[in-house]
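By convention, the token line describes the chain's fold. To illustrate:
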Amino acid sequence: MKHWIGIDVSSKTLDFALLDELGTHLESAQVGNDRKAVMKLMAAWRKRHAVEIEQSLMRLEPTGHYTLMMLNLVVEQQWPTWLAHPRDIQQSMGIKRVKNDKVDALRIAQYARTFRERARMFTAQNLKLDKLKHLLTRRQHLVRVRAMYKKHISDLNRYMDPDIKKAFNQLDKRLIAASDRAVLRVEQLIMAQVRGDEHTSEQYDLLRSIPGVGPQLSAYLIALTDGFHRFTDPRELACHAGVAPFERSSGSSVRGRTRVSHQANKTLKTMLHMAALANAACWRTQDLLPTQSGRRQEAHPGGQRCAE
């Protein structure tokens, strides 16, 4: 690579920082979060600094829907792009005293050059999975909103004045019904996104064949792991999910018991925990069910899977 380009993304603007192959900071620029503005800047850098996009590496952080325009552009133009987690940069910088968009873009470019051997190119397949992530995030938001309305009926509204309690109960019930319809529609969009790609659909069916793994966990695992290409080792995924314990000791001193890290993906950890509980309850129920002969039915690995 001859140039390294760091991009800090916000809702309205994109901050760019350009480094040459020696790590010299050539230029910084801020443009609107707009396709034409980005193409114009790349054309200007091609003239001023002989930047050939095919021999450069762009790096930006995932910031939800704010990055969608840029990701669509780099896939369409086939620009080498690395989409990495912001925490990696934060932990590599050490002590920092200045924080603004221009400086962040420069740090992103410096990180890309320093750790270029870790780069994973963003592809059209990653773009499809990125859309799946957005849908799953929206579903989680709708589920939380629905739970809030249910909490109103079961707790908050109970202590209201009787004159307004009935009105608020009716309002919350209508909002719950609307949330149910919205969740159902988003789940349909999630399934359409999964089934729209043959490889993703095959991975989804394999995950669904595992006892206790439901549709949401299957889709979330595929999206989180970029189709199981993000992690090269099962232990990395276990660590990311917060189910791998770590020792806490120094010399001869043991500082507390072995525990999992708080830097885990709490959403994935919760989903795996609930799947394990559902599976355990399933086998426990089967173990207690009597057979036609009157004997207790034994649960075993080859037994029938619980309906989800």
Notes: Residues 295-305 have pLDDT under 50 and may be disordered. Residues 125-225 form one domain. The two ends are 50 Å apart (CA to CA).
